[in-house]
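Can't paste images in this forum, so I'm doing it all in text. The chain is below; anyone willing to post the predicted structure tokens underneath?
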Amino acid sequence: MDVTEATFERDVIERSHDVTVVVDFWAGWCAPCRQLAPVIEAAVERREEVVLAKVDIDANPGLARTFRVMSIPAVKAFRDGAVVGEFGGMQSPAAVDAFLDRTLPSAADRLVEAGDEESLREAVQKDASHVGARVALGRLLLGDGRIDELPALLEPVSFDPGAAALLARVRLSAVEQPDVSAGLAALDRGDPEVGLGHLVDAVRVADPALRDDLRAAMLGAFAELGEHHPLTVRFRRRLAQALY
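Text version of the structure:
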């Protein structure tokens, strides 16, 4: 399908939450674009979970600027609203096939999308390095109060901010400090405004080690709320003031 600046949000960003959308940035004067087109069209036709969108950069220069298309052909794959892979220039049919296969959700990805405990545990078994599976299962276990299982589950992916936030919550659960206890309890019962208020108050008087865990826990709450949520914006500013 041909996509324009007016339809890109609907046809690419929104649709990529259901299937992988591969966007071919091209122009009529570009010979390599004309050579690549039948190759990528044939590869997409062989895959039910991929759709192809074509953007004429001459007619849609705003999209070219937004996605930093410096030369063409340029191909970008979108999933869940974000770019998950890209390549530039003419590619062989085998290279295009390999690229498309990398953009498709794995068996573990599909289990994570299911979201229940059994599926998440199976996802971890299938792909022990799957950060999303471990973090999603960790959040589920935390919500059920089964924090004893979190260290073994999350330590292998502790580099991830979401995992680090959950591990910080485990350590904070042993801290006997009123604002810490009240903040965690409020987050657990689904009241992030009260919870973040208590935690940021705790940051102001905490020692360095405790402060790091409080910061990590708050960043985890921000991630769950969303970066543009009003509470995230407000408490990120308050956290910065408390830290610095």
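The chain has three domains: 8-103, 106-157, 159-244. The mean pLDDT is 91.
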